[in-house]
Amino acid sequence: MTRKAKHRLHPIAIMAGVGKELKNMIAPLLVIVAAGSRHGFSWNDILVPLAALIYTLVMGVLSWVRFTYEWDDRCLVVEEGVFVRKKRSIPLERIHGISITEGIWQRIAGVVQVHVETPGNVPGEAEVILRAIARKEARALQQCVERAKNRNGHVNEPETAAHRPPSPLFTLTMKEIWIASLTSGGALGVVAALCAFLSQFSDFIPYEALVRDIQSTWNGHGRWYIALLILSILLAAYGVAIVQNMIRYASFVVRKQEDTIVIARGWLERKAVSVPVDRVQGVVIHESWLRRFFGYASVSIIHAGGALDGGPAGEVVLCPLVKKHRVVPIVQACLPEYRLDVPLSPLPRRAKSRYMLRPLYWLTIPVGVVAYMERPWGAVLLLVLPLAAWIGARRYRAAGWALSSKQLSLRSGWFRRTTVHLFKRHVQSLEIETTWWQRKKQLATISASVMPVGTYSRVVDVDEEDATSIYRWLQGERSNET
Q1: What's the confidence (pLDDT) of residue 36?
Q2: Does the pLDDT of residue 480 top 50, yes or no?
Q3: CA 355 → CA 42, 359, 411, distances in Å?
Q4: Given a cut of 90, is residue 30 above it in pLDDT?
Q5: For residue 278, what pLDDT is reported?
Q6: Residue 363 falls within a domain, yes or no?
Q7: Which residue among 219, 249, 279 closes a domain?
């Protein structure tokens, strides 16, 4: 196959790039305008924002003119740079994953945005972004990458007839999208984003005066009004989080095409993520207490290249919400080597008291102080202590581990119970930690990590002998575990 001629992106890429830059600049520009207009409006106050806008538009056009790309059956070549010309040649077999998105600008022009991720880039960030190319070109690039990987692995597989997409393995109904949005949380993230935005205007908003007013209102027995205000803010943030998740998970579908898992989702921004099976490092099952009550869970896969779908580094969401009895067949259809129905070994009984006492170490003093200061009604807060001990007992019952000849499974947590299944060949490191208190009871903490760096699972207070057995398993001394 001869190399294709150099191509430029669709002109809509100019608007997409400029729009992204202006989105990042809007807060600083508003601060500059507000700072200049404190003593009356003047046309000089908008000179800096106007110059920034013109510069962004000019650089957007020049960047589009100077950006070219081409590929053949061996490598992808990208040339870019306005003042400093940079040329990158990426072998196709080194590409870990390709995700395809359709933002508002791309959907207007009928094109797609392609993110190419390789092992050399920062986890969760694409090495190359083709902001606007034809959908047919994106499919052709994916097929070239698959052929290159098959050729590099000495595998010859027939191409799919007529490029028909395979039947979906998993889809989300509107009811499930609604439930997933209601139970996913995210309100605290919205509040944090709002606080970060307001912090840009700290020079103009009298925060100290507001704090003094809140203190005087609190001391003046206006606590119910403050509590109502905080509750209203949290409810509004919760509503925004629900809308965000509904837009994100609309039209969610999972397919498997040969040795690649394809995950598509999104309404305003349509995104398709391609994850090669050989790059999957593990399977993660999350069960929040609310979803567990209704029999639901969420499933993610750990990807060696990072977070292709904008989630946590190393995790790609496979099923945002799924009935627990469907988890095993869906994962086995995508990753037939993994066994998710293995029985977990519980923690020793002597670890139960440690789980119950652990939350009391940091709760007893603050709860006691508040209960004393707000007596007599503050004494109700003392009920938090037995509740925390009960939650610790539930965490003890939920934790466990399982070992087979090829796979390690770890479970921890109760409010958000997490079960991680890892293959032996993917485990990068296994740590066994013991504190002075743990040594007295012959307990240990085990932590297993995989690629990318920082992706790990942990179980506290495992029996010391069991932790040693897991360590020997990784060293290859145990090969007959069942």
Answers
A1: 59
A2: no
A3: 64, 8, 15
A4: no
A5: 81
A6: yes
A7: 249
CA distances from 212 to 49, 191, 200, 207, 373 (A): 34, 22, 21, 9, 21
Q: What is the pTM of this model?
A: 0.74
Q: Which two tokens stand for residue 235?
A: 């409810």
Label each residue of the chain as H, E or C: CCCCCCECCCCHHHHHHHHHHHHHHHHHHHHHHHHHCCCCCCHHHHHHHHHHHHHHHHHHHHHHHHCEEEECCCEEEEEECCCCCEEEEEEHHHCCEEEEEECHHHHHHCCEEEEEECCCCCCCCCCEEEEEECHHHHHHHHHHHHHHHHHHCCCCCCCCHHHCCCCCCEECCHHHHHHHHHHCCCHHHHHHHHHHHHHHHCCCCCHHHHHHHHHHHHHCCCHHHHHHHHHHHHHHHHHHHHHHHHHHHCCCEEEEECCEEEEEECCCCEEEEEEEHHHEEEEEEEEEHHHHHCCEEEEEEEECCCCCCCCCCCEEEEEEEEEHHHHHHHHHHHCCCCCCCCCCEECCHHHHHHHHHHHHHHHHHHHHHHHHHCCCHHHHHHHHHHHHHHHHHHHHHHCEEEECCCEEEEEECCCEEEEEEEEHHHCCEEEEECCHHHHHCCEEEEEEEECCCCEEEEEEEEEHHHHHHHHHHHCCCCCCCC
Say yes or no: 61 and 102 in one domain: yes
355-378 burial, b at 16+ Cβ within 10 Å, e below that, comes to: bbebbbeebeeebeeebeeeeeee
Among 214, 249, 284, give the residue marking a domain's end. 249
pLDDT given for residue 325 in this prediction = 92
Q: Bridge partners of 384?
A: none
Domain that holds residue 22: 12-164
Tell me if 54 is assigned to some domain. yes
The rounded Cα 387 to chain-centroid distance in angstroms is: 31
In the beta sheet, which residues pair with residue 102?
Answer: 270
Tens digits of residue pLDDT in 129-172: 888 898 888 888 888 887 887 776 544 444 444 445 677 888 88
Question: What is the mean predicted confidence (pLDDT) over 7-24?
Answer: 82
Are residue 160 and residue 26 in the same domain, yes or no? yes
Is residue 384 in some structural domain? yes
- Out of 14-23, 40-49, 281-290, pick the least confident: 40-49
Same domain? 87 vs 226: no
What is the mean pLDDT of the segment spanning 5-29?
78
Beta strands 260-265 and 400-403, pairing class: unpaired
Q: Is omega for the bond preceding 452 within 30 degrees of 0, making it cis?
A: yes
Between strands 416-423 and 86-91, the pairing is unpaired
Give domain status of residue 446, yes or no.
Answer: no
Tens-place pLDDT, residues 163-188: 456 778 888 888 888 888 877 766 55
